[in-house]
Amino acid sequence: MSDFFTMSILVATVASGIRLATPYLLAGLGETVGQRSGVLNLGVDGVMQLSAFFAYWTVLETDNLILGSFVGVGVGLVMGVIYAVITVVLQAQQGISGIGIFLFGLGFSDLMFRRQVGTPKPANQLPDVPIPLLSDIPVIGEALFEHSWLTYLAFAMVPLLAFMLRKTTFGMNIRAVGENPQAADSLGVSVGWTRTYAILIGNAMAGLAGAALVLELGIFQPNLTAGLGFIAVALVYFGAWRPAGVMSGALLYGLVAAVVLQWKAQGIIPRSASDIAAMAPAVLTIIALVVLAGRVQAPSALTRPFSRH
Amino acid sequence: MKRLLGASIPLLAALIAFLFGAVMLLAIGASPWEGLKALLDGAFGSADRLAATAIKATPLVLVGAGITIAFRTSVVNIGGEGQIVAGALLSTSVALAVPDLPAIILVPVVLVAGLIGGAIVGAIPGALKAYASVNEILSTIMLNIVMVQLMNYLLRGPLIDPLEVEAGTRIPQTERLSDNATLPNIVPGVRLHLGVLIAVLAAIAVYVLLWRTPTGFRLRAVGHSPDAAKAAGINVKRNITTALALSGSLGGLAGAILVFGSEGQRMVTDGSSAGFTGSAGFNGIVAALFGGLHPLWTIPSSFLFGALLTGATNLQRVLQVPAPIAIAINGIVVIFVVSSGRLREKIDRMLEARAEFDDTPSTPETPAVVEGAQS
Amino acid sequence: MKLTRHLLRLLALLFSFAMVAAACGADEVSVDVGIEDETPSGDSDDSEASGDTLTMAIVAPSASDDLAFTQSMIDAIDALDRDIDLQVTDGTFVVDDAAAAIRGYAEDGVEVIIAHGTQFGGPLSEIAPEFPDTTFIWGTSSDTQGLDNVFAYYPAADEGGYVNGVLAAAVTQTGNIGVIGPVEAGDAVAYINGFAKGAEDSGDVNVAITYTGSFSDVALMAEAAQAHLSNDVDVLTGSSQAVVGAVGVASENGVAWFGTQANQTSLDPELVVASQVYHWEVVLEEMLALRDGGTLGGEAFEVNLENGGLEIEFNDGFELPDGARDAADAAIDGIIDGSIDTGA
User: Fold this and answer.
1) Strand order in the sheet with C206-211
2) Tell me, what's the ipTM?
3) How far apart are the CA of B363 and the nearest CA of chain A, in angstroms?
4) Any chain B CB within 8 A of the CB of C130?
5) pLDDT digits (tens, 9 = 90+) for B6-51
6) How many CA atoms lie within 13 A of C37 on its CB side?
7) pLDDT tens digits, residue range C255-291?
8) Under an 8 A CB cutoff, do B264 and C97 touch?
9) How does strand C206-211 pair with strand C235-238?
10) What is the pLDDT of residues B108-129, one digit of tens each?
């Protein structure tokens, strides 16, 4: 019963939490970039499902995990181009068109799966790649440094994106068009193109998130994400539009889910309470935000199309 | 002439969307012409099918009207799914507790229970936003997850049909609900129940509330500019909570109508909210936005999406195409139609050559970030 | 010019697009194969509607290729030794959508309609009397709601669960067996309870059961399996469509897996020990024979080990320890003759 505090269990639980957090993190980081530029994308879940299917299909046919990951990103980029046309060129309402993208992704990935694969077939899974030296550190090494390379990439993106948003001209342009597009425009920043690039980055990362999810599992199923993309969007608000904040949210969500599963496996949580326990990640995320949150301001121009009159 | 061109754009967009759908049907070897026929036949082919379309539209109207209240107060509500489930659970519990009340009392009682259930689950993110600065997009999405688990817990535990326990089959469903709680049909011989009428009345009530009452004025004032509203002595926090509670209550009403207007006559779960709501919590948002966030326009807009949904079920049945193709086509329709809106405005504007109409709400003070953009 | 720079960057993106296209193009060959697997009826509609072809339709809650509940019924219909024109409406859990489909088939004059979900019972009690010449087959349910043109069916899932449990106790070396399920309800409970009883009756083993709370969250199901593994579990089983992810975890860690509802050997030809398979065709055949004789319904059927409706399908690719097969056969005999209580 009280085996929970043995080292091997703790290590396994943390590792499991990190695995669960990876797709949330990738998708959430991408959404952060998009929202910073003033574009809300509620279609993340749909993009993830599409990229997950195509990544899975690619690996099923070619056994090439790297190609599969690239295909995931590519599908994300294609959806990004479409979403940029919808929201930047045609200036459609962002919330509703995102739901359109979600529905399309949900339906089309399911359709393609049924036509091209049919029944769930196992494909290659992402191998765990221990990082030399770091993985030899007792306890921590096994929990943190024996993951797939997409997991490392996800966490490496956190400082990279933070730097990009904070220090580079491109990042500053993104924030500028998200806060006050009129002013940015008058300063010679192309609002449309900046937002387009932010959308492309966001969708590419959603695509990678879909690939990471499906390649970790090695199998596809219709509605594979089960709403994961929507939670990723919620975590952007949890993280107050900062990459590190989104990472905290993703880790909190993943780790709580992993602890709950571990406690269920050990019988610490009685079976009669399994549904109640399954609420834990969602409830704790809200509570954490109540406790931690100060007043955060969303990007002022979020969801507002820009046009020069 | 000019106006005709402007108005034809959304229609054109819908047409292009259906062309996409036609291409997809062709690609999997089905006839698009037969597909269109099946779609229309399924949605409008008989009195019963027309009624099915109206019934499908009912929760969309309610959720959509609720969304309108929230959005007009500048709060987002993506918690429709959870609010529907909450209303359904509370009204179901009530119906199980007092099944023998006469219909004339029980029907209103379960509907009010639905309203209350939805209002509670709506008020939580409202209060969290108003008093604890928790973003409502986050809390409504998370509460959807919480409500699904609560539904699973209740339907496999306290509310389960005793017969299911006895037989050992343990299907997570309630016992057959009292006939006295069933929503009566309003047209003899057609399966068109009272819920449809209630939804239409509720949408009208939302219109009256928002534009004809002091409460509505305050809500819209908060939505227009919280600072100005505050300066005018309006309690912003309480109004934000009220807006989400009202919004949620309509979702809850939709939940009650889904239970007591269903042919299933009991509440059952497949472990997901969509298995019960048919994703009405999301489709309602689409219908509301499509209706321009106006409660009255939400009615025809919901009817349109209701037709698309019932038509799609028939499309699958008649043409034997996989069900997801209908979902994908729905997505394309939403994308194309919503994309055409601004295009139409632009064309209107170009034709009328009258610029300087700014419909984007004014942005608050310029943050420091913009200065950085220059360097 | 600024525009050209942007366009150049977009060109780079289009390169990625081309890559995706290339990936898809490479698989173009397999497209035709996929199509033949599906569309069971469609074209045959007009050509052979008459004669002794039986028109059937099924309305089901999940996908027809889910390797679980719905697929078990589709496979059963395929296995029937009759000329059948089958129409499928799947992925329809929402009761009123299913009701519309059932009613639509009845209006079209389909002779036998399968409502493959307990929750469809409500509308069926209204629809069936409206179409007295149509046979409705409804499950899983142990009674016909008193309707004389409805046959009902249900599985004794605990029986196969028990046998799988006996086998699991023989296979495990650590003595720890992990079970994962979606929500503690329905079929899953019967299977899982039977499994736990079978395992515990046949040795000193510890069975840990996790319900994740979701039927569809594949990733969560996989991590639930991981959590079991960290507790020294070396045999896994589970019920629901989402277990496909858990089978992947079993494969990755070389842990034995037991399947249910459909034969899951295809998910891992080396580690799937055995699957409890539903052979609904056994009772479907009985129902159709009754229908041929003029009885349109009014009876409920159970599929179980005795009537062959449930079968334990072993995977020859997995080498069982000595005596395991005999223990399983003994359990099957015991269940059939009533000497073993599966705890249902």
Assistant:
1) C206-211, C176-181, C235-238, C256-261, C272-278, C310-314
2) 0.90
3) 7
4) no
5) 566 767 777 888 888 888 888 888 888 998 899 899 999 989 899 9
6) 15
7) 999 998 888 898 899 999 999 999 999 999 999 999 9
8) no
9) unpaired
10) 999 999 999 999 999 999 999 9
**For helices A169-179 and A7-36, what crossing angle results, to 10°?**
70
| Residue in chain A nearest C37 by alpha carbon | A118
- The pTM for the full model equals 0.88
* Gap from A297 CA to chain C (nearest CA, Å): 31
Homologous superfamily assigned to C157-271+318-337: Response regulator (3.40.50.2300)
- B124, B136, B337, B338, best to mutate vs chain A, most A CBs in 10 Å: B338
Task: Tell me how many helices (H) and strands (E) chain A has.
Answer: 13, 2
Contact C248 A200 (CB under 8 A): no
According to DSSP, the β-strands at A129-130 and C54-59 are unpaired
| Region for residue B315 given its phi and psi (left: phi exceeds 0; alpha: psi -120 to 50; beta: otherwise) | alpha
Chain B residues in contact with A305 by the CB 8 A cut-off are: 342, 360
Q: Are B96 and B329 in contact (CB under 8 A)?
A: no
B125 close to B316: Cβ distance less than 8 angstroms: no
Mind telling me how many Å the CA of A217 is from chain C's nearest CA?
6
A179, A238, A305 ranked by CB distance to B342: nearest: A305
* Cβ–Cβ contact B228 with A under 8 A: no
Q: Where are the domains of chain B?
A: 58-323
Tokens representing A22?
Answer: 């990876």
- Cβ neighbours of A49 (radius 10 Å): 32
For the stretch C301-316, pLDDT in tens is 999 999 999 999 999 9
Contact at CB, B168 and C344, closer than 8 angstroms: yes
| Cα gap B205→B295, rounded to integer Å | 9
- Token readout for A224 is 């594979």
Write down the architecture of domain C48-155+280-303 according to CATH.
Answer: 3-Layer(aba) Sandwich (3.40)
CA atoms within 13 A on the CB side of C29: 3
Portions of chain C given CATH number 3.40.50.2300: 48-155+280-303, 157-271+318-337
Counting as low any pLDDT under 50, the low residues of chain A are 1
